[in-house]
Design goal:
Helices cover 25% and strands 23% of the residues. The protein has 224 residues and is of the alpha+beta class. It has two domains: 67 residues, no CATH class; 115 residues, Jelly Rolls. Helix 1 crosses helix 3 and helix 2 packs across helix 3. Bound molecules: zinc ion. The site of zinc ion (ZN) has 6 residues, from helix 3.
């Protein structure tokens, strides 16, 4: 059971469809892993759709309205050709280990670039979402450390497998972590099998200490 979840306001905006694509993606992936947030989003969606379709929230929908909707759908011309289902990739294999992914992230594997090694037992694979913001899979090997940094914008991280900790907390599989310019941290993993996370940034990181500060002019290249 995850200990860290998106803010209630964030879940409402997700249900309303008002978030940026990269944010929606990471919240949807968290909901795949968290029944608590899944239920909250489901409740928001029921209320919002009742408002849109003018159904009473607790009552039954108007059957006549469903009949006309069904009639409209069945009158649509049939699709030409066949869409053959392609076998979906459901996990990431790294360093001889297999990491199963939540359904939402399985769908973006086709947009994921190749893995590259960074400093401190870190590997990353960028996801090309054709949109603003940076989405990345990051794998921290055992003892892997991200240099101390703060954030110009917001950094969302979802722990997909394993654990990591920073100066503030310890995070486990399913946890959703939100960091802003108020937070300075240096995540590291001591998990035996390392830690796989999915991370979304709206601005590049800003490294704050030691030699890592030299990375700042290049931080738009690092973590993308
Ligand atoms: Zn949750």
């Amino acid at each position: 059971m995850a200990r860290f979840h998106p803010e209630p306001e964030h879940l409402l905006q997700f249900a309303q469809g008002s978030l940026a694509l990269s944010e929606s993606l990471i919240i949807a992936a968290h909901c795949d892993m968290c029944t608590r947030c899944q239920q909250i989003v489901h409740q928001h969606t029921s209320i919002l759709s009742a408002e849109i379709f003018d159904f009473p929230v607790t009552g039954e929908p108007d059957p006549a309205r469903f009949d006309s909707m069904f009639e409209h759908i069945t009158q649509l011309p049939p699709l030409k050709g066949k869409i053959a289902p392609t076998p979906a990739q459901t996990s990431i294999e790294l360093d001889g280990k297999r990491f199963p992914l939540p359904l939402t992230l399985q769908r973006i594997l086709c947009k994921t670039g190749s893995w590259s090694g960074l400093v401190g037992k870190l590997w990353q694979a960028p996801v090309d979402l054709d949109t603003t913001g940076l989405a990345t899979f990051i794998y921290m090997g055992r003892g892997g450390t991200v240099p101390e940094h703060t954030h110009r914008g917001t950094e969302y991280t979802l722990v997909l497998d394993g654990e990591f900790c920073d100066e503030l907390n310890r995070y486990r599989t399913g946890d959703f972590i939100s960091m802003s310019h108020e937070h300075i941290h240096s995540p590291h993993s001591d998990s035996l099998d390392g830690c796989l996370v999915f991370s979304v940034l709206d601005q590049p990181l800003h490294f704050t200490s030691g030699l890592a500060r030299l990375l700042n002019p290049f931080s738009h290249l690092f973590f993308r």
